[in-house]
Fold this protein.
Amino acid sequence: MRTGAALDVVELAAGIVLAGAVVALWRKDLRALISVLSLQGAALATVAAVLAVHDGDAGLGVVAGVVLLAKGLVIPGLLARVVRADPGSRETAPLVNVPASLVTAAVLVVVSYLVAGHLTALFPDPLTRLAPLGLATVLVGFFVLVTRRKAVSQIVGLLLVDNGVALVAFLLTAGVPLLVELGASLDVLLVVIVLQVLATSMRARFGHIDLDQLRELHD
Amino acid sequence: MSSAAYLVGLGLAGTAALLGAVLPARRRLLGAAVMSSAACLAALVGAGDVLASGHAFSLYTAQVLPLTGVDLSLDPLGAMFVVITAVVGLAASCYSVGYGTHQTPSRTATAMLPAFLATLLLVPAAASLATFMVAWELMALTSLLALLTEHRQRPETRDAAQWYAVMTHIGAAAILLGLVLLATHAGGQSFAVITAHRRELSVPLASVVFLLTLFGFASKAGAVPLHVWLPRAHPEAPSPVSALMSGAMVNLGIYGILRVGEDLLGGGELWWWLVVAALGVVSAVFGALHAAASTDTKRLLAYSTVDNLGLVLIGVGAAGALAVVGEQALAGLVLLAALFHLANHGLFKGCLFLGAGAVQHAAGTRDLDRLGGIARKMPATAVLFGVGALSISALPGLNGFASEWLLLEGLLHGFASHSALTEAALLAGVATLAITGGLTATAFVKALGVGFLGQPRSKGAGDAREVGPSMLAGMGLLAGGCVVLGIVPGVVLPALDRATTAGLADGAPRAVLPGLGLALASVRGAIDPALLVVGLLVGLVVIWGALRLVPRSADLRSPRRAAAWGCGREVQTARMEITATSFAEPLQRVFADVLRPDHDLEVTHAAESRYFPEAISFHQRVDDAIERVVYRPVMASVTWWGHLARRVPNGSVHRYLAFGFAALVLVLVVLA
């Protein structure tokens, strides 16, 4: 059913989402991470928009707009403000170094293909075959969350997980209802705002946003 | 009629608990005690009717417990346990009026005693898995709270409560597992359904069920090596609660073994009952030894409970084994003896615990080494405690003698059973009865002689005053029961006969002939304790008269007065008298391998010369060898794992996230 150019575009956009997650593991510059997020948001919006046009679903079209606005512009913009307050900040010493992280990411992609086999078997279709990409994005995002020290990197990890979930939702279902997507996007927006406030006040109080050093408060 | 009286009893006990919780402080004790006494009387009427007529009653309501409903049924076996509980409960309720007066009783304390009593009355009537487990767990909970009531005065109570809670819950878990396994394979959770399908169970399954439930019930009955909670919980509980725990609650362990082994599983295999008898032999000897070595009155009584329940377990095991090899008549006789001993144990141990509580109440200590001379200060308590002590030592004319005689007769006649294994078990039982008889007498000579006679060894003992009439009434009721059952045991034997018949899977012919004395129906053997008592009294009068007639020497005509047990010395101080520790010392030496006493000798030298000691202090402690060998290593390893586990959450956000991530990936890989 869904074939031709539309499918090619969706495949490309889904690939960009996963590639963005892997790039987020690779780059240490926080500004680069934010551009990655912005790119991912645009790719997600593209997926939604193509599906909306193909299925003639107006609701899905609105969702695409909301995704572009929230994930492509507003959230990266907010994060950029946090980073701008502390120029030149980098993810200096991740808990797992970059080469090892990339190898792990490869393993996670394999795992997600293994797992998603059960999902695609339920309804074999060119779109559902892309679901492992979303799942892999979720796992890589989680991995970023676990191994990166800076508060901003952690937010990026969380957003990667969210983007992965959104991608799987677009690919596997016949389109996410407008209300659900709106709710999820606003939720994430709120989380980002809270984290931004938290990161700003952390820096004001301790002079850094390194989560590991917070353990000294615990002791 | 019987069911109505029984239900009224339950309701009154519940009301008593409620009154204990809501009445103002001054009326609380009296209100709860009067209500729970009435509850005991009503339950006594209901259960007594079942025992006298032999007709069981059944009740069912779908209301209280969702999904399963409440299933109650009281057959003569259960009724016997209700009667024992009601009698001990009546005494404990009377006693509690006087016991709590020295301070404002807390709501929990006054509410928990009747609540505990209500659950004790409920358990023997439960007739389905759900009802039984709910009643059993309620009993564990209420007894735990009742045990904890004095935790503000004595911090050790908390430690005792922890031991008790752990042991009782491990036991309850095992029982639940066993009964659920049984119910799944028997096709229903009602005991009547299980009984109807008991022949269809496979032997391995039935054996697993029996062993699981035996574990739980044996821990409740205080069988070695699951007895560790008794010597902790009994001393720390308030005395009415100790009396109920030791006189009524431990009995339900025996009830459970009989109900599951005989009724629900239909008698089963020979080796089941040999295991029960072996548990009994070990418990009886171990308990009696520790009772003889203890210097704490209530700890002594707790170990003596282990000993007596061991004897009952020997009887139950022997009866089960004899029933399996087809000797129904002998099995009935032995089980009758065991149940009779259980009832007697409730009477005399309840009396002894209440007596020990009265002494503790008056003298402020239960350490025998710090008591002494109590008989002169508290004559009535001393007499009642004495009756209990003589009963438990099985002296003729008291109930302990009657039941131990029956048990011995039953075991000896069992040698005709033509089963080598059973005969070996019976032989071990007879030997155990002999050795524990001696050790128990030693323990109670010590408790009476050192605690009640001689001179006071502490200020508290010297200032002791007789306790009030309500406490004496509670003890007097149980002591009176000991005397009556000792002289005319025949009055309760027909009722016990019905309980025995209900307690064996295939029933049993009558074991005793009607009459006031003890006359065996199936085998030769009879004794009339009343005649024995008359004979003893006549003998005493004759000896007394003969001594009067003999011409006295000059010394006897002008006797010199000195303290009793004072060895005739002019100046006799408490420091010169024998203490409980020194009384038990020879036994401790003989059985050093089992008791393993810890000695601690500290000598402080004078500053000038090492040849002149300034002070010498000697401490001795007899720990429970089983606790040290079995429980301490287990607890140490649990603690070690606990410390190890504490290193896992170290406060790092990344570590917690990593746990979640690892779990997620693991689940996905497992699913893939």
Notes: Helices of chain A lie at 4-26, 30-55, 58-84, 98-122, 131-147, 151-172, 178-206, 215-218.
